[in-house]
Amino acid sequence: MRKNYFIVIMLFFAFLTHAQIKVQGVPRNDIKLKTATQKQLTAKNANATTFDDIQFWVGTGANKAAFAVQWNDGKNADALIWGFKWDGNATGEDMMKAIAKADPRFYTLLLQGTQFGTAIGGFGFDLDGANTIGLYKSGNVTYPYYPVSGIVNTAVYDFDEYTPIDASDHWQSGWTTKGYWSYWVRDDVNNGFDYSGLGASSRVLQNGSWDVWNFNVSFAEEPIAAFTPVTPYANAIDFTKGYFVVNEEWFGHTNGSVNFVSNDGKINYRVYSDINENKAFGATTQYGTIYGDKFYFVSKQAKDGGDTQYTPGGRLVVADALTMKTLAEFDNVGGGDGRSFVGVDEKTGYIGASNGVFIFDIANMKVGAVIAGTGGGSQYAGQIGNMIRTSQYVFTVKQNGGILVIDPKTNTVVKTITGAFHSVTQSKDGSIWGIQNKKIINIDPLTFATIEYAIPTTQYLGSWGAWNAGSFTYSNKENALYWMNSVNAFTSGVQIIKFDVATKKFNESFATLPGQTGTFKQIPYGAALRLDPVSDHIIVNTTESGFGAHYQKNWIHTFDNTGKLIDTKVLNDYYWFPAMTVFPDNAVPVVNAILPSQISTGSPTIIDLKAVVSDEDNLSAAIVKTIKSNSDSNIVSAEINANEELILTPKIGGTSTIVISFNSNGKIVEKSILVDTAVLGRDEFTKVQLSIYPNPVSDYLNISTEDEITDVVIYDINGRTINARINNNQIDVSNFAKGFYIINIETDKAKYTQKFIKR
């Protein structure tokens, strides 16, 4: 009898040892069940952390719960812990997803929609801040998986096959071979943790709940370690310090996006989507520009039907330029596909489309009518390309239609410059330039007279068939233009071309893109090339030749204005298809002291406004000057002519205040001038004869005068003479120390004393 009793006892323990265990609600016969005593001993190793110790809280509400993850990966022994707040009902899955969405460092591998709810296959955490978050499956580095709202989804229990892109991340995943994520819970702080056989979807949270996910490496259970509170994520990217790269994205898979490269070199991916609940732009986002305080993103089509991850935003998306928060979205931009955008004034912009130029009401965020004369032609025979705003007009490239000159005061086409143009831009001196296959054309900004300059040996072939903004662009610091050469209509070359506007000389070997060895070479993509308006650095986006998976390889190269390569950044592997680089607009126009705040005159007076205002990060020549108000037009009339001269004509004795508005790319400053006409006198005009600009100045100080300069002397704030040489009415002050200076200028007719600030 005793022998039989012993056999029964042994069989009972054998049954306990091999009894079925549930992992996240799934019955598992291959995992041994721990005894209750073992479960409690494991849990009691957790330290006495309280809610007061938690630093990173997600959600709002009266209820609180804690969420911890312990990787047991040898990188550190602690379990990272977050906090979760809510009202009403919530599950462990709700808590996990909310934290993954709120903390970009934390990411998950999930199998959702099973009969047992959501299975957690893997957890990861960006330990080094490298931001290279994503997963490879089965060692396939060609097609990585990137989390959306912190989640990478899979369709089967293949968790063991995933590894992190960044090997320095916390990462554990498994189900059948590597181990599994065990789930430990408690709802009373006075009790120990208990193993939960339920999944996160079935776990109902209570106020005061604690959830711990503990990875059992090779199915061996580890004690719960000390809790380490996760520090809050500093999500406030400073979008004034760095530059944006607008992406077409992978057609048929994802809608357009924008990355941001911070000045510290960090690449922040899909910043608009991260900030706006996984919203994206439309399909094939090809253009972006900042005007005023808004960022305008233009896509060819309203949405990519193959994108199941991001919510499309339409052909035009308007965002706050400082926060990237959505302001407006438009599927329809006039009936055609989107191409480009240009700001006209504080109330109006123009949308370039495949079927013409459409007026956009910035103040009320509405798409308006087409501008007469800009439409016509089929979708790929009459589309609008690049548009630029000068101080007087808008110049627009139309396929097969030349360059259209639009008067923004009347929204009418006033001139058509015929020719097969690909792009248009404005140089530092204010002149307009169009580019064709084998020549560039100088266009007078007022008379529209043209002069052609043949490109010596290379060529520039446009992309009207699959339009992009093109590489033809300008320097804000030097009077120079840049572009990439072309091999044929489908292939860009690897040479950066520089054209000196002053000397009219081409440098066709200014710089060569790196990565020109081996079978597959780096090639420019999209607009490819743009210049930082402040540093004058050249930013070039490249991908890899060879089609297919090669296009997942992307680089950003930075050259200085001598053609020297000074930096290269490698992007996460993905089909970004970079469209163009956009720089933040941080500076406001600065009106210098040359523009008087008070004028006493009895005769007509002319002040050249071109010389009195500048902008550090935009073309000073493009600043729009307007009369905002005249307090008494019976005393003095005020107008600004086509030469950007302010003409004050006294009528009767008295005083009037003239307010002048200076609009530089949507950023506006105003200047008031008190005009005293108490003494009426001569009929002839008096003209302000000399001015200096920009002021403050970073590199070159310009002197504007019609007289001959005979001598220039500069003094610092202590009265010491500073050596300076004048060349073509320009002084290089780039090596001056920051501060105030006095400049004495002598001409053949008069002497002048001015002050300026070296920035």
Automatic annotation (TrEMBL):
Matching SUPFAM superfamilies: Calcium-dependent phosphotriesterase (SSF63829)
Protein name, per record: DUF5074 domain-containing protein
Signal sequence interval, chain numbering: 1-19
TM segment ranges: none
Keyword Signal carried by entry: yes
Keyword terms of this UniProt record: Signal
Organism (species): Flavobacterium tagetis
Higher taxonomy: Bacteria, Pseudomonadati, Bacteroidota, Flavobacteriia, Flavobacteriales
Domain Secretion system C-terminal sorting as annotated: residue spans: 692-757
